[in-house]
Amino acid sequence: MNFSNLNLAVTPGHFGQRPPVTKPNPGFLEELGEEAFRRLVSDHYELLKQSDISELFPVEDPTEFAAAKKHAADFMIQICGGPSYFNQSRGAPQMVGRHAPFKITEKARLRWLECYAMLLPALAQSVSNDNIQSFWNYLDVFSQWMVNTPD
Questions:
Q1: Which terminal CB of the chain, N or C, has fewer other CB atoms within 10 Å?
Q2: Structure confidence by residue, pLDDT tens digits, 58-70
Q3: Residue 44 lies in a domain
Q4: pTM of the predicted structure, to 2 decimals
Q5: Is residue 92 part of a domain?
């Protein structure tokens, strides 16, 4: 597949800004498949574990880290039109409230997005550019909602 049409640009965010969110096209999950989606989220967390924002994740406890990966994958699968795994195991997402205990700055948001941007190109072998772009566009806006601390 041609990856050149993908635009992984980051919209500048500002503390307290919460633009309208559009869920990703369900085709992203359909083309990727649940197992590969879970692998994507796991790989994302492994990059975060090595990053300068690792303190935002339970990297010191392998059991908690594995649970965080699972919860994140459950959420993303649900957001992409898959089964409501997150709701079944954790209740309504309410992600802003769930992330309130963590100091998430615009810098942390950018690093979180950067880690996804490193992984998405490899998906172009099995997922259309339009669906990858749809997922990226969601991540870009969703991540703005999570910023809860000024830089």
A1: C
A2: 999 999 999 999 9
A3: yes
A4: 0.91
A5: yes
